[in-house]
Amino acid sequence: MHDRIHLPAYVRKTKGMRLVHFLVSVSTHMLSAKPGSLGIGVMMLVVSLVSPLSPIPLVSAAESLVGEDALEAGEQQFTQGHFSQAAQQWEQAARGFEEAGQPEAQAHALLYLSQALYNLGQYQRAGVTLNLARELAVESNNRVLASRILGRLGNVAFALGLVEAAEGYLTKGLAEARELEDSMLVATILNDRGNVLASLQRYDEALGSFTESTVLAEAMNHPSLAVTALINAAWSSLLEGDVTASRDRLDLAMTQVHDLEDSHRKAQEFLSIGLAYNRLRQERQVSQQQLGLQAAKAFQQSAEIARRLKDHRTASYGWGHLGHLYEDEGRLEEAMELTRRAIHAAQQGSASESLYQWEWQAGRLLRSQGKMDEAILAYRRAVYTLQPIRHEVTRGFPVQSKSFRSSIGPLFFELVDLLLTQADETTDATVHQSILGNARRTMEQFKAAELQDYFRDNCVEASLSKKTNVDEIVKGLDHTAVVYPILLPDRMELLISVHHGQKAELKRERVSVTLETLTKEVRRLRKFLEKRTTREYLPHAQQVYAWLIEPLREHLNEFDIHTLVFVPDGPLRTIPLGALHDGNEFLIAQYALAITPGIDLTDPRPINRENIKLLSVGLTDSVQGFPSLPNVASEIHALNELYGGRVLLNQQFQVHELEDEMKDERPSIVHIASHAKFSGEAKNTFLLAFDEKLTMDRLDELIGLYQFRETPLDLLTLSACETAAGDDRAALGLAGVAIKAGARSALATLWFINDKATSELVTEFYRQLHDTSVSKAVALQLAKKTLLNHPFYQHPGYWSPFLLINNWL
Length: 809
Hints:
Helix content is 56%, strand content 12%.
């Protein structure tokens, strides 16, 4: 008998009590990165119990018919891997039960709906659905159902990367299941909790959970759950480095899964086994051929079972991963044939999260075969397929999770590399410009995607909806150049957009420095810039200047460039480019500078100087363990003398007061003189108010409405920020702060500096901004030059960390 989603007894008119059965939840996004990439192929099956419930009276047969039929239809779709269709049916069932006044039945339908949403990678929506289901279960006094939903909430939190919350849900659910003496629910939650423990590298505890889950499942005669826990234990052993134990468990699981009847779940278990064998093959120096054969058998079995069940999504993974295995082995023709099968299956199953991977794989294979034009088309199809789903694709199983940049970034960078290679091969100037434009647009797509992954909300889409073509921006600006450093593994490419006659023109320079070498040099520069008592930074500042600026000097001189707008990438985001040095002077002495996370994300309209409305807030006192900032008072006083406006200082700077000011006064400039910390995760990034820490989401609530106002926030200043050295993601967050807050520009610091130096620089910046002929970039340049000539603050550690972000006009 197949693993099926059996309906609770009370929604069947004649069945009475049912046997225990299980939902199987395997997020396809646990496989949704470049095939074979370490840390993404960890596919631990997550199981959620659907246990029997005592029958309760139906409202009436007529009232519950739609809900029951929809549940049945959803069950059929789900067992075939048709998750979108299952979700539609279960959503309809939930509505039917709600209209019939059956909250317990509605809770079950919502639980099933969450399962389909989870498998589609729609984790946030699944979480909302489960919270409603739990409220209904509690209202219905159904403790078993409420405990089961807790387990599901743990899995959803885990998929979203909220590991602490996941462990909390699962621990509570496990305690309730033990109290209810429900062995199958205990076994299920133990398996799920083991996944969380493995992600925290608590492998002994994880193996204990998986072992107990296996024993309980076998005792309850549920071999499928026992196999699932065994596979998970094999993965845990592998991640711990115990390859022998992992191999033994995989061999046993391979034998046991053969004995199960064909089902979607069985196909998924073969996939997980195949991925584990393939990972072992990469880890071990011996038995590689045998492990490869075992992986191939598992992938083949998965694909064949899925094909028979018309489970196109799972079949695409089976064929695709087998194709990737052959790609690794250099069997390119066979790999291409399997990849085409995977693409066809993914198209049949409308499985975008699978499809983009195999289009990407096809691009790699075509490039290896020298078919460059076809390869570019395949890469473009992959990027196009990925765009609508990228925010979900990166939220998979968190064990040894990889960042968006390392998991999805290679797709974009490999396409850009292909385009630049194509540009080398053309002699037609117009075609050459078109190809370079395509490369730049691909980088813009990546940067928007990366920033959206960091903030995980719609702030990026809101900015993109207002985007202006970069060439149109540059055409209207004399003496300004936009510089795109593209960091490829083996070299750096520099694209520079300049105004030439009535059109913008792209120039290109290639720099022979590897990403690894560049990153090491940038890290050293950042380290020594923060040491304000030495000049150890100088040789590193000169080296990065030689790589980043010197190749452009001819173009900069030819077009009489005065302002440079950088779209920095990767490690370059972590350093202040004004501190680069040519051996005679700093870059800031030569050019006004600004950075932006992406030109498409930049609102190019200049600041409205006629109606400046300033709101100044800050802390001088020591608050929540952070040191005092005694010079903030004089800083805010100076700004108030220049522009007037409202002031919130110390105890006045409370979140509700800031919220009232933002709503009532609608300032055009918000100046925040308080501690701010930018982390690699947006959820750990905050600004310090007197009464609490303002997270980025809370800041978005307070200020983000400006995204939808006709009169935007022109400037947000954060004068006491810090980002961790070497944390590219934290620097990404800082670069995106203006977009998050709905501001055209932001002025912020890469690291915390002397607050007296901060006060002097910030005051001079605002003083220069009074001059209508001076752009924000030039105002900051002049302010930095003031400190550069100061007897105490000449060191770049004092003035360079101030960055002008986004609009520079």
